[in-house]
Design goal:
By secondary structure, the protein is of the alpha+beta class. The protein folds into two domains: 46-155, Lipocalin (Beta Barrel); 165-272, Lipocalin, CATH 2.40.128.270. The chain has three helices and 18 strands. It has helices at residues 2-44, 119-128, 237-246, and strands at residues 48-54, 57-58, 69-72, 78-82, 87-95, 99-107, 131-135, 138-142, 148-155, 165-172, 175-176, 188-192, 196-200, 205-212, 218-225, 249-253, 256-260, 266-272. The strands form two sheets. Strands 1, 2, 3, 4, 5, 6, 7, 8 and 9 form a nine-stranded antiparallel β-sheet that branches. A hairpin with a 5-residue loop joins strand 3 (69-72) and strand 4. The longest helix is centred in the first third of the chain and has 43 residues, at 2-44.
Amino acid sequence: MKKLSFILCSLILMTACQENTDKSDKKSEDKKNVEAEKQKSDMLMGSIWALSKLNGEKIEASNEGEPVHFMLNKDGSKVSGYAGCNQIMGSYETSGDTELKFRDIASTRRSCPDQNNNEKDFLEALRNTTSYKLDGKKLSLLNADDKTIAVFDHKKPETREMELGKWELKSLKGESVEFESKEGNKLHFEFMKDNKIAGFSGCNTFSGTYSLNKDKGIEFSQMISTLKACPDVEFKEAIFLKVFEHSTSYTIENDQLKLYNDNGKELASFTAL
C-alpha cells in the first residue's frame, strides 16, 4: 500500500512538473513571438524603403539625388516619400500579419521633363497594394491577385536638421501679418535640437516635430498646443497652426523662410529673428 501511494505521489509530482514546464515553454514562445512581431513592425515602420523593382523591371539607383522611396510614419498612419520628381503623401492601414493598404495617395505637381522616371507606375503600385512580404531587408508589395508589383530595399532614415533658430511670421497666404502680444511676444516658431519645434501663435504656445528630405521637402507632425482662451486677441491662431499641417516643402533665401503646400502654393513666410 505504501509503495502504491509512493508511486501515485511520484506520478502527481511528475505531472505537475510537466505542466509547469509546458507553461514555461509556452510563455517563452509567446515572448519570442511578441519580440518577433515588434522587430517586424519596427523594420516596416519608420524606415525608408527605396524602390529596386517595379512591375518586374529593375530600377537602377541614381548616383545623384534622392531614390524613389516611401516611409510609413511610426507615430500614426501617415505615409510620405519621393516619386522621382514629386513628393508624395497619404495614409496607410495595416491589419493581420501582412495586410497593407495605402489611402488618399497624392503628390506635389512639379513638372520634370528632363527626368526619366516611373512616377505614374509607382503611385499606381501603391494604390493597388493589398498586402506585403518582409524578407530580411527586402519588402515586397503585392496586389489583390497576390502578385508582386514592387520591391524595395531597406534604408535607415537619415536624420537631418534645420539650422537652429527662431522665425517670425510675416505673411499668411500672401497677406501681411503684424502682431505683438501685450507681453511683447511676436508670432514665431523655432527649430530646436532633435528635430523639434516650438512657437507662439498669438495666445497659446505650441510644439511638435519635423522631418526633412533632400528635395526641400518638410513634414511637421505631433503638433500640440496649449488651450488658453484669449478673447481680446483678434489674430486667428487656427489659421497659423494649419500652416504646419499642410506644409510639404520650403525655401530659405536671404533670411526669409517660406512654407508651401503640395500644390506649390505659398502658405506662410517668416524672417529670421
